[in-house]
Backbone:
């Protein structure tokens, strides 16, 4: 694709679909994944990760899935399950590869399966992404699933990823039982300034053709994009991708702050506009410099004295720097006979 080749890319660096191969490991996310793994290992029961839209919850969910599958644990994954409690049990059984039937039959089969996994030394983990979609009834069904246990251990570890609406649901008095059973709770949030810049650089690096490493984004462009995106990774992706398209349309191999500003102006529904003060100062400085250049040029054209001074100054500089051998020599006096 000409667009990718133009920047020396082998794939798009700022896709919205979470790609674990392009994951940028910020410290907070690494800590969350490690803490979840610790909570699963100690049979915590229910764990929760909540954050605003676009702050990396689904990416963390995918990373956790990859780690758990790689460790040979039994994993069931549900995405935004808008189902009634009985259907939720059926989905969980299906994810674990169990036959479905009546609710008592499914619960019995699930309990037997979980006991077998425990005997094999394997964790059984249910991961629910977009858990706010469960609603009150679905969350109550999750609580009932967490009751599957022995005298000493929880048989099913449940990790819920959700938006802030999940916390709103869990504050309801009728859901206080499941809220009290959440052993660990984590929050994702925007990046800081340094992380946002490194995030852009990392996404570009993971998408580059091997051997090509010229900087695609100027430091100023990255700072402008990150600030306008309120340091939210998903919004950074949207703006950075648009800025690349603007630069490509102009034939530039580098994204400048001008291209970044064009992308921001094209995304008013997501991007925080640059402050009026910042744009006013920038335009003022550009105008002042242009005015000074014009004034000097006009003075030179219309001032014979300035022209004469300039010619004399140039002649003096040449006299100083010209090699001695290049200077004209005075002809020696010729003796004449009388």
Residues:
């Amino acid at each position: 694709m000409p667009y990718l080749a133009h920047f020396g890319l082998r794939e798009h660096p700022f896709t919205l679909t979470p790609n674990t191969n392009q994951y940028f490991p910020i410290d907070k996310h690494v800590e969350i994944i490690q803490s979840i793994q610790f909570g699963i290992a100690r049979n915590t029961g229910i764990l929760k990760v909540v954050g605003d839209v676009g702050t990396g919850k689904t990416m963390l969910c995918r990373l956790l899935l990859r780690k758990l599958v790689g460790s040979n644990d039994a994993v069931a994954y549900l995405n935004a399950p808008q189902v009634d409690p009985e259907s939720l049990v059926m989905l969980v059984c299906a994810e674990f590869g169990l036959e479905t039937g009546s609710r008592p039959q499914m619960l019995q089969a699930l309990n037997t399966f979980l006991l077998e996994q425990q005997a094999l030394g394997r964790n059984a983990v249910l991961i629910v992404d977009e858990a706010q979609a469960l609603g009150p009834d679905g969350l109550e069904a999750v609580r009932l699933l967490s009751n599957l246990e022995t005298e000493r251990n929880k048989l099913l570890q449940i990790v819920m990823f959700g938006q802030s609406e999940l916390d709103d649901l869990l504050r309801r008095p009728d859901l206080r039982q499941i809220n009290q059973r959440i052993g660990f709770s984590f929050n994702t949030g925007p990046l800081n300034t340094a992380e946002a810049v490194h995030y852009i650089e990392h996404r570009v690096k993971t998408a580059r053709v091997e051997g090509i490493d010229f900087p695609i984004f100027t430091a100023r462009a990255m700072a402008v994009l990150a600030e306008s995106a309120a340091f939210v990774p998903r919004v950074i992706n949207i703006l950075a991708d648009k800025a690349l398209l603007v630069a490509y349309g102009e034939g530039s191999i580098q994204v400048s702050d001008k291209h970044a500003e064009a992308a921001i102006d094209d995304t008013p529904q997501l991007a925080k506009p640059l402050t009026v003060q910042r744009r006013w100062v920038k335009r003022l400085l550009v105008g002042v410099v242009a005015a000074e250049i014009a004034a000097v040029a006009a003075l030179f054209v219309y001032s014979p004295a300035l022209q004469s001074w300039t010619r004399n100054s140039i002649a003096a500089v040449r006299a100083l720097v010209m090699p001695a051998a290049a200077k004209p020599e005075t002809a020696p006096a010729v003796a004449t006979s009388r």
